[in-house]
């Protein structure tokens, strides 16, 4: 079950970024909503730490989501990935990474829990 959830998480994180870049708000929002559900499912089975592996993914959107979702238990590793993405040569990637870092620093970055 966890492997299926992780596969779905990766796909949805990538989809969210792709649809965001293409300006398809409906599909980006749908991917986000489903990603939230998968995140909660991973949390409920105690598998959030498995998201650390996605911080090395080839897709920068997967890196952003997995880094954001692992900040609370591995901030140094997650912040390193996000800081490396600040200079990414991809539209919105650096801006999104900066937003996650800033929200984390302010203590306002939250994610849904069961």
Report on the structure:
This protein has helices spanning 2-22, 25-44, 60-70, 75-85, 93-106. The chain is an all-alpha fold and 114 residues long. It starts with a helix and ends in an 8-residue tail after the last helix.
| End-to-end Cα distance | 18 Å
Which outline best applies? globular
| Mean pLDDT value | 94
Helix % is: 55-70%
What's the assembly state of these chains?
Answer: single chain
Radius of gyration: 13 Å
Uncertain runs with pLDDT below 50, 5 residues or more?
none
**Structural class by sheet pairing and helices:** mainly alpha
The total beta strand count reads 0
Listing every helix as H and every strand as E from the N terminus to the C terminus, the arrangement reads: HHHHH
Q: Mind describing the biggest β-sheet?
A: none
- How many distinct helices? 5
The proportion of residues in beta strands is under 5%
Please describe the structure with a list of short key phrases separated by commas or semicolons.
68% helix, 114 residues, mainly alpha
Topology:
Elements: H1 2-22, H2 25-44, H3 60-70, H4 75-85, H5 93-106
Concise summary:
The chain has 114 residues and is an all-alpha fold. The chain has helices at residues 2-22, 25-44, 60-70, 75-85, 93-106.
């Amino acid at each position: 079950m966890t492997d299926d959830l992780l596969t779905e998480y990766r796909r949805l994180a990538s989809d969210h970024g792709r649809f965001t870049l293409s300006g398809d708000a409906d599909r980006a929002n749908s991917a986000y909503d489903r990603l939230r559900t998968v995140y909660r499912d991973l949390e409920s089975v105690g598998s959030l730490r498995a998201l650390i592996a996605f911080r090395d993914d080839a897709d920068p959107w997967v890196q952003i989501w997995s880094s954001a979702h692992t900040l609370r238990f591995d901030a140094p590793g997650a912040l390193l990935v996000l800081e490396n993405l600040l200079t990414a040569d991809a539209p919105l990637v650096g801006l999104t990474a900066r937003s996650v870092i800033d929200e984390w620093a302010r203590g306002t970055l939250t994610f849904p829990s069961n």
